[in-house]
């Protein structure tokens, strides 16, 4: 009898404990379901926005999907990357078959010609829309010095690599650094057309010859220059983006406000 | 009794490893499942955003070395009170422009004569320097410039002192591509290895 009473007591206690746990579980699941609903609700909202937002792009993809761009130097295509038949066609003038970057300045000097200070060499740089849809384009120009081991020399002056920028009304300067110049093409570059040139010549400023040490040893005078052996580099990157939803597309791709830049 | 059995069974279930533990794991699984679903939806939205716009890009790059540096050597053979001045560009890579000037004290006088023999010629220019026309190519020697020293009769011809200095400057080009020398260029020394 005593055992039975104990069982009953245990049972009541157990029932009491089970009730609290049950309530707690109920609250937990209730909160979980509520949070799930909230999360789903927010996700659905975003999805709606995304679908509405991207539906135009989806239409664009069906009708006009072949974006492409080429970098041109002195009338010749240096490199291009065009979307066609569901794949990217990449071609460059590089001798390396694996390179995705073209070669600039390859014909700057004639055979056995040496680089001359202050001399202006032809370097007409343009962008061609090699795709089948209109696009906005920008270029980034990098100028810097390296040593013979491929190490960048930051103490030499990039400005002495003088790429003469032209058509500055058509190519709007963005934010840049001493090494990097950012140019945005004003307006739409229509399919198949070439932009106005953004540069026409390149020269190494004679100022590179002003930093030197002169040493006299008997009848011999030796002049050693700071820039002797330094290698100047010119790199150009071209980016293109669709014209549909241009402002958002440009902000997404380039992180700038196209309207504020005045390129739309 | 039925009630007691029921509670007793529930109690045993609550203490066995496969009882309430399994129930708890099932709850955690649901939470994880829902969390994963939410994460997946969020990730999907992110992917959609990144694929939203058509873009493309190309690049190109090129480089060339700048070779500077000059080494010139002056030769002054003396005969009959005349210095026969020639300058040789001993650089292997770079051409340059050269000029010379003689320093001496009165009452000496010097008469210069362009003897010729090189690709260019000597002419008197700014600051009393004698300038050699044209670019002195690597390995090339100028024509001779004779500097005849006039010594007054009462001076000892073995004790006069005439010093000839030479200078060189790199070849620059103007907008039309024509070479020229900028003798006004001021060098600023640099510490070797500083770059």
**Topology pattern of chain A, helix = H, strand = E:** HEEEEEEEEEEEEEHH
For the biggest sheet of chain A, the summary is: 6 strands, antiparallel
Order of SSEs of chain B: HHEEEEEEEEEEE
Major beta sheet, strand line-up of chain A? 3-2-1-5-10-7
What characteristic shape of chain A results from the CA principal axes?
elongated
Classified by CATH, the class of the largest domain in chain B is: Mainly Beta
User: What is the oligomeric state here?
Assistant: heterodimer
Describe the global form of chain B. rod-shaped
Nearest-angstrom radius of gyration of chain A?
Answer: 33 Å
User: Could you tell me how far the N terminus lies from the C terminus of chain A, measured between alpha carbons in angstroms?
Assistant: 93 Å
Structural class of chain B: alpha+beta
The CATH architecture of the largest domain in chain B is Sandwich
| Averaged pLDDT of chain B | 80
Query: Helical element count of chain B?
Result: 2
As residue ranges, the low-confidence spans of chain A are 1-17, 48-54
Could you tell me the number of beta strands of chain A?
A: 13
Structural overview:
The complex is a heterodimer of chains A (264) and B (195). Chain A is elongated. With 264 residues, chain A is of the alpha+beta class. Helices cover 28% and strands 33% of the residues of chain A. In chain A, a hairpin with a 6-residue loop joins strand 8 and strand 9. Chain B has 195 residues and is an alpha+beta fold. Chain B has two domains: 2-50; 72-180, Immunoglobulin-like (Sandwich). Chain B is built from two helices and eleven strands. Chain B has helices spanning 2-15, 20-50; strands at 55-65, 70-79, 82-89, 96-103, 109-116, 122-124, 130-132, 144-150, 163-170, 172-173, 179-180. In chain B, the strands form three sheets. Chain B has a four-stranded antiparallel beta sheet, with no helix packed on it. In chain B, strands 6-7-4-9 form a four-stranded antiparallel beta sheet, with no helix packed on it. Chain B is rod-shaped, with a radius of gyration of 45 Å. Chain B starts with a helix and ends in a 15-residue tail after the last strand. The chains are: A alpha+beta (264), B alpha+beta (195).
């Amino acid at each position: 009898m005593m055992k039975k009473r104990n069982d009953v007591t245990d049972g009541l206690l157990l029932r009491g404990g089970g009730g609290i746990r049950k309530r707690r579980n109920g609250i937990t699941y209730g909160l979980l379901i509520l949070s799930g609903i909230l999360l789903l609700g927010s996700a659905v909202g975003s999805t709606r926005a995304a679908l509405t937002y991207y539906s135009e792009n989806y239409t664009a993809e069906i009708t006009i999907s072949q974006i492409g761009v080429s970098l041109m130097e002195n009338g010749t295509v240096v490199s291009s990357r065009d979307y066609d038949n569901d794949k990217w066609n990449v071609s460059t003038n590089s001798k390396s078959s694996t390179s995705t970057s073209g070669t600039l300045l390859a014909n700057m000097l004639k055979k056995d010609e040496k680089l001359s200070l202050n001399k202006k060499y032809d370097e007409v740089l343009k962008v061609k829309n090699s795709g089948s849809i209109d696009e906005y384009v920008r270029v980034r120009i990098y100028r810097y010095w390296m040593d013979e081991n491929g190490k960048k020399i930051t103490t030499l002056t990039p400005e002495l690599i003088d790429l003469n920028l032209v058509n500055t009304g058509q190519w709007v300067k963005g934010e840049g650094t001493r090494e990097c110049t950012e140019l945005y093409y004003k307006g739409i570059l229509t399919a198949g057309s070439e932009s106005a040139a953004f540069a026409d010549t390149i020269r190494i400023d004679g100022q590179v010859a002003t930093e030197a040490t002169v040493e006299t040893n008997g009848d011999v005078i030796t002049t050693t220059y700071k820039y002797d052996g330094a290698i100047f580099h010119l790199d150009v990157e071209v980016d293109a983006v669709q014209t549909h939803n241009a402002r958002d597309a440009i902000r997404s791709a380039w992180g700038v406000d196209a309207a504020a830049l005045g390129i739309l | 009794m039925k009630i007691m059995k029921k509670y007793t069974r529930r109690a045993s279930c609550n203490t066995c490893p496969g009882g309430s533990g399994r129930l708890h794991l099932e709850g955690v699984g649901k939470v994880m499942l829902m969390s994963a679903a939410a994460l997946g939806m969020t990730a999907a939205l992110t992917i959609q955003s990144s694929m939203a716009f058509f873009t493309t890009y190309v690049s190109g790059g090129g480089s060339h070395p700048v070779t500077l540096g000059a080494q010139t050597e002056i030769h002054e053979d003396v005969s009959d009170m005349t210095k026969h001045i020639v300058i040789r560009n001993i650089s292997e890579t770079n051409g340059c422009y050269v000029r010379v000037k003689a320093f001496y004290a009165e009452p000496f006088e010097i008469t210069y004569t362009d003897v010729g023999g090189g690709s260019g010629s000597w002419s008197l220019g700014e600051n009393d320097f004698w300038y050699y026309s044209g670019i002195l190519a690597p390995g090339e020697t100028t024509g001779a410039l004779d500097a005849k020293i006039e010594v007054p009769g009462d001076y000892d011809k073995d004790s006069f002192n005439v010093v000839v200095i030479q200078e060189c400057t790199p070849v620059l080009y103007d907008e039309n591509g024509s070479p020229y020398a900028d003798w006004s260029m001021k060098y600023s020394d640099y510490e070797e290895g500083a770059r």
